[in-house]
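Hey, I'm writing a tutorial for new members on how sequence and structure tokens pair up, and I'd like a real worked example in the thread rather than a made-up one. If someone can provide the structure for the chain below, I'll link this post from the tutorial.
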Amino acid sequence: MSVFQMKNLQRRLENMASEATQELDKACGHELWRNIGFDAFDELLDSEKRERANYYYGQWQTVRDLQESL
């Protein structure tokens, strides 16, 4: 993979992480999920918010794993 491709991939991953973080903040209504992790979503009463939070947490976690491996 070229340097250009690597930088482009890193930029895309950062954009995905940023989007996931924003959506998680919206779904939870706070930033505590960053400290608590997945357990923060169990307290959400709205099932739609809980589903969205679970989806974006999975996305956020995958991006972090990829960034660590690069």
